[in-house]
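testing teh design pipeline on a random one, pls ignore if ur not involved
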């Protein structure tokens, strides 16, 4: 797992989180820490560290495959948002939801941890966008039925209508 952390740190480089300015790798670290609190595998932790490298960096799927194998690569590919060229935001989110609805329990658990991390940040720092994001996240929660139940509950609480935005 340390190898995945180093690899993600290398690829994310100087990237920073949109709202906080902290190093992007801290988002990955938070997801890994969330996953450590539920049943997980080493491949899940590696995929959590690397979940955004294909989407946000020049890292290729071939490099991921060579270093981490097919299972980790498949998890990352499943977690990667579809290309913007596939339509407007609503269309892309529907494509992503459909793909994630068919994903393994491991991938859905990673996605739940990612949503927990992102929801806290977006609600706190961007109330205007949070209105759209919370609707999208609630629709995702509806299809992530194979993911860890405790993370689903944790996310459901964050997404509840009483969430302050």
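output:
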């Amino acid at each position: 797992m340390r190898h995945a952390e180093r690899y993600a740190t290398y690829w994310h480089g100087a990237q920073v989180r949109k709202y906080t300015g902290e190093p992007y790798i801290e988002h990955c670290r938070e997801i890994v820490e969330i996953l450590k609190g539920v049943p997980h595998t080493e491949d899940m932790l590696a995929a959590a560290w690397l979940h955004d490298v294909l989407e946000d960096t020049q890292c290729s799927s071939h490099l991921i495959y060579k270093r981490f194998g097919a299972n980790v690569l498949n998890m990352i590919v499943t977690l990667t948002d579809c290309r913007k060229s596939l339509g407007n935001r609503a269309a892309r989110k529907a494509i992503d939801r459909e793909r994630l609805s068919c994903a393994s329990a491991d991938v859905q658990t990673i996605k739940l941890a990612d949503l927990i991390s992102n929801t806290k940040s977006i609600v706190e720092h961007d109330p205007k966008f949070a209105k759209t994001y919370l609707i999208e996240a609630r629709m995702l929660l509806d299809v992530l039925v194979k993911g860890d139940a405790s993370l689903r509950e944790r996310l459901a609480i964050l997404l509840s209508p009483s969430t302050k935005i």
